[in-house]
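Worked Example 4.2. Consider the chain below.
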Amino acid sequence: MRVISTAPIAGQKPGTSGLRKKTRTFMEQRYLENFIQSTLDVVREDCGGSLAGKRLVVGGDGRYFNREAIQTILQIAAGNGVGRVWIAQGGILSTPAMSCVIRARGAVGGIVLSASHNPGGIDADFGVKYNASNGGPAPEEITDRIYRRTTEITEYRVVEGSVNIDQLGSSKLGDTEVVVFDPLDDYAALMQQIFDFPKLRKFLAGGFRMCFDAMNGVTGPFAKHIFLDLLGAPAGSVIRATPLEDFGGEHPDPNLTYAAELVAKLASDDAPDFGAACDGDGDRNLILGRKCFVSPGDSLAVIAELAPAAIPAYHPGLAGVARSMPTSMAADRVAASLGIPCFETPTGWKFFGSLLDAGKITICGEESFGTGSNHVREKDGLWAVLAWLSILAHTGKSVDQVLRDHWTKFGRSYYQRYDYEGVSAEGANAMFADLRGKLGSLAGTPLAGSKISHADDFSYTDPVNGATAANQGTRIFLENGSRVILRLSGTGTEGATLRMYFESYSKDDIAQDAEAKIRPLAAAVCALLDLEARLGRKAPDVIT
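Applying the procedure from the previous section yields the following structure tokens:
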């Protein structure tokens, strides 16, 4: 074991989903080493001062620098006396599977190497996230301590050597046992506990056609094993299934813009019955029917409505539902009909963790294409796909008909999100500061054929542990029931990403085009903000 002197490196503050920077930044001398040592210092404190006998899981989405980073983490884990490190074979482990393995194997936590839906490559993005012993993203109390440690670090400890991460089995690095395991085993076993696989296998054998797009990300091997091997879907039902270091030069984000190939396939005359995609690390999902897009808010609401009847694990009923604040309020109406609570949280899956651990909710989701349940502590793309397949098998209806039946019963939240990527952080912050300065005076202001009823900054108090989170997004409510949310995203690595969310609810008028319904509201808000003059953008980069 060697002790190597180091010094703090500025800017190693984890965001909503860990520490994300450009790949070349992580490749700089001491950058990754400092952050991993700081993380293990905090974990050691929480383990009573020693990591001996403790288990740590390591894996990632296969993006550029994944394999090299794993060797560095192994050396530092051994240098810090971790008892056993579980490494996914080839370094490939989806984020929800990471949560599953931590929980199944009693690990103290896990290190996820991913920048999620961000592009990969030497000139693209990389990320590191610590997941706690419950399998979920570390809460802010832990990430704040990790950050403080990065500002005072003076040394890191390593055991030099390397491990063949492609070969299943056990070996030693110093006194640390390193176990390379099959990443498919624990996760596939969990899915078979939740869903009725014999029923799904029979359903897929009856002529039902599906297409799953892994987007050259981590879910490829998982999807092939589950859909092809276990459920017997025909060859060709899973596309772009080999994880690539640069995701094939494409953006591994499952939305209507970046999953264009799948969207076109579902809009063709010979479209399959069902289409789905997951992002680079497998925690996000896109659900499509023939010429039909399911918004994430509607997907959450439909699953909440039908899961108790369609999915064995949820037959006893749901304890509650939760959604992130920007997510449409469709799930609220379902929860009210079921007589269960619906919690509204800030953006970030970690905010669902305490509610899940306390048994207050069973299903949760967010508008950024994340849906999940109490089976793990991360959003889970493949789980959402299996949930929709179970609903289709149970109802015998198409995706479009399931949606229309839901809207007929509950009304429809027309919903769109505008993303302005890579805008000036200085300009965006100034725009928000001006808006916040006049929130109290906006009531009564005409906007898009209605008037603003009130506006505020969303703050949250966790009902389980009392933790608070302020300034989580600016909300504008209209008298006609429409709602606008504005926030700056923390998942990018350059500039800032401005996200604008528009929701317009209708009880009876459910057949309009969503874009046409939202366009006047979006134009009015952009004018209110003077967005083009302030940020130099005439249109968003992505509309979802």
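Residues 227 and 237 are 8 Å apart (CA to CA). DSSP finds 17 helices and 27 strands in the chain. Compare this with Example 4.1 before moving on.
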